[in-house]
Amino acid sequence: MKCRETDNQQSLLDRLALLEQLPRPVLGQRRSLANQAIEARHHHPWVQLSYAAEGVLTVNTDRARFVVPPRLAVWIPPGLGHGVQCPPGTQIRSLYISPDVVPARPCHVLEISPLLRELILAFSALDVEYDEAGAEGRLVAVLLDRLADAPSRELWLPWPDNEPLAGLCHYLASHPDCRRPMAHFSAGLGISDKTLSRYFVRHTGMSFRQWRQRARLLAALPLLERNLRITDVALECGYDSLSAFIAAFGELLGCPPGAFRQTDKRKEHNK
């Protein structure tokens, strides 16, 4: 099965590479390209906008990890190397956009409002070479306008360019249930707590505590999507108390985990 998935991903990469330019400023017609996650690191000359109608996308770049639950999307600028992962059953929608028709923006997670979702769905039903001069072109103009105004969300985790610190960060991101204190890791690196704190701020823009908490909360999103009990999610993500998890989750996401999950569980029927 893994071999077949790899072959399918390589086939899609080959098809993307054959496109020297987009046939129109926006490409996203359902039958034009498979809506498929490609784990292998790749890049393309266009903006890519991808969101999961169901499931959670994880986008990895050299400098950051972006976690994208339903109702949100990831904006990937042209030329940025990235790989995309998602659990089985994830429903992906993707748009490829000419960089000439949108402002330059870094890779980030953005909100997909109900109106924007409907615009994307309506656009996906158009022909690849839609009529730019008529109503179809006006729909695309509104779509691009709404995308430009979509607010960002802080659902990303910066990777440091310092090698020892990067190893520590990858470990913590892979083990959100780890409860070892900072002193354990500073001792392992042969530095003081104060030095490790400075390294985190210098190389990630966050303190050790902030980075670790962000990593834990991002790890919680796929678990919530799998409908695990919130108490179990809190424990698996390293929280000793449910109240601490709910407070931290609300600070980052703007709502408690139960409300976030119920909103994200709205299914998109127009496939």
UniProtKB/TrEMBL annotation:
One of its GO terms (molecular function) is sequence-specific DNA binding. This is AraC family transcriptional regulator. It comes from the Bacteria. InterPro entries: AraC-bd, Homeodomain-like_sf, HTH_AraC, HTH_AraC-typ_CS, RmlC-like_jellyroll, RmlC_Cupin_sf. Residues 166-263 form the HTH araC/xylS-type domain. CDD domains: cupin_NimR-like_N. Keywords: DNA-binding, Transcription, Transcription regulation. SMART domains: HTH_ARAC.
